[in-house]
Amino acid sequence: MIMPWSIPLLAMESxxxxxxxxxxxxxxxxxxxxxxxxxLHYDIMSLHHAIFSSYSGDGRSTWNAEMxxxxxxxxxxxxxxxxxxENLQHGLSDEELLWQASVVHRRRSIPAKERRIPKVAxxxxxxxxxxxxxxxxxxxxxxxxxxxxxxxADPSYTPTTSPFSVFHLRNIPSKRAKWGDVSxxxxxxxxxxxxxxxxxxxxxxxxxxxxxxxxxxxYIYAAFTSTFYSYVQAFDDPGVYGRGRYHPRMAPEVxxxxxRKGSQWFEVTRELAVEIVSDTKYYPKFKHFCVSGCYVDxxxxxxxxxxxxxxxxxxxTITHTEWVYGRAHPTLFYNRMVTEELLSQIRPYFFFSRxxxxxxxxxxxxxxxxxxxxxxxS
Length: 378
Prior knowledge:
single chain
């Protein structure tokens, strides 16, 4: 079935194809046009299906009626300037930001004349600068209508990006985030809330400053926007690093049997993004009882999403990370470690990969045209 957002995918492959498709629509009729779109959509997504074909699920939305109701009376009370995607320095407190993000989301039935191309929000959780920014600039080039960028850095960091950079003025108001602490989840919710203020954002991807894309933009955009499932990994780990972190006072909201673990790096739909920022049931429990070696970023979203929206999860992560048992941090890839063989082994299973040091930038830029950003149609 051809989905409404299949048409914008043509524009990403070629500006010329969009104009040609529109001419076909006007001259040859709806049937021929949709057939042309279907062929391109099938080519792109058949590859995605071949790579990620192991998932099967119910597929029925649990929110359809109530989530799609307009809330015009509440929306009208929000200052329009605070909702502008360009006004990231809005001065809102976390409480105000989370509330506004959850309210803006509810306006789902957008009049035809106001409809926008659905965008993917790329949210970077960083400590400071983005050393791999040139690779991401390469990745985003020519696709301005199809993405948004948000950066949460340490508040002590002052960005010095070029006015022509995709990261220019994309830092959101931030607070210090400590590894393994609930403040990491606060930063993730802050990123989601800021991205939700732009009604065109339909998918939300969490990344770090050491992440790299493994495919070109059009492939990743097509893979995310053509499904209503979300990429959140949630599994039951019976060991000391899984159930061993559970606190009995998490009950009754979360029992030991319901406790889940998974990768921090996720990709979610707009509907699930608002569930995360508006949650008041599970978040207080994790804030108070997932402490002292619990690593809340590996459990909070994973457990909550598994309990509330398990049928809507792909139950896999989007990002490759190489862990060595017993080590607190994953492998850091340096320049000499980055090879075509390495990337080729990772690509069939993930969209992104981490952690890459600044020294990896040069070999990555060299490999990108023939390995990572190669057209999926070739």
